[in-house]
Write a structure and sequence with these properties.
- This protein is of the alpha/beta class and 219 residues long.
- 21% of the residues lie in helices and 26% in strands.
- A nine-stranded mixed sheet has the order 2-1-3-4-11-10-9-6-7, with helices on both faces. A two-stranded antiparallel sheet has the order 5-8.
- The protein is globular, with a radius of gyration of 16 Å.
Length: 219
């Protein structure tokens, strides 16, 4: 599997993601500039990553301008043809703005930027420690959409305690139903607020991020 990482003006986690994929997971990585359009070197077995940061300074809304970049037009087409796409933090916001994932990421409930380790879990998995760093990470959607996500198994991660308990005490931003990450109906587009690339190296004292990539089939 080959990975492409889109670099927007304001991206600041692109090199972290590159290091995690290349050095920790041993993957081939190609950096992609937001003004380019060519994704012909990727097949649908590969994956395009939208990294964290503050694309276009987060003006208007987070991800609202990035969705109109030339490369995003190609990413949307790539995803619609079955190619894998992962958006982390700002990348998750861009996926929602572009319509590849439902819902929206709103300002944190406490109106403050949060930067700390949290715990997340999949529906049947153990709790993993993964960092978050965002000011607008509160996942929101209407009740009908939330019910559809639940029924379709599209909620891939929820915030939880270290012991795996899912409740609001473990929720860092007020996200509805403790949602930390979702996927589309076809299971090829993933979005999450926590940063697995920041906990994939033994040098960081935490490799739970590798479990995240493995769960998503991107290892």
């Amino acid at each position: 599997m080959k990975f492409g990482i889109v670099v927007f003006p304001g991206s600041n986690c692109d090199r972290d993601m590159q290091d995690a994929l290349r050095d920790d997971l041993g993957k081939e990585v190609i950096m992609l500039w937001h003004k380019d359009k060519d994704l012909s070197m990727f097949s649908k077995e590969d994956c395009i990553i939208l990294p964290g940061g503050f694309s276009y300074g987060d003006y208007l809304r987070c991800g609202a301008i990035a969705r109109f970049s030339p490369m995003m037009q190609s990413v949307v087409d790539f995803a619609n043809k079955g190619g894998k796409v992962l958006g982390v933090c700002n990348g998750f916001q861009i996926l929602c703005e572009s319509g590849l994932l439902p819902g929206v990421l709103l300002q944190n409930a406490n109106r403050q930027f949060v930067c700390k380790n949290v715990f997340i879990k999949s529906e049947k998995g153990n709790a993993w420690k993964v960092p978050v760093a965002h000011g607008e990470g509160r996942y929101y959607a209407d009740e009908k959409t939330l019910d559809e996500l639940e029924a379709g198994g599209q909620v891939i991660f929820r915030y939880c305690s270290e012991s795996g308990k899912v409740d609001m005490d473990a929720n860092p931003n007020g996200a509805l139903r403790n949602i930390a990450g979702i996927q589309n109906k076809n299971g090829n587009v993933f979005g999450m607020m926590p940063h697995p690339e920041r906990c994939s190296s033994a040098l960081m004292g935490n490799v739970d991020g590798k479990n995240v990539f493995k769960l998503l089939g991107l290892n």
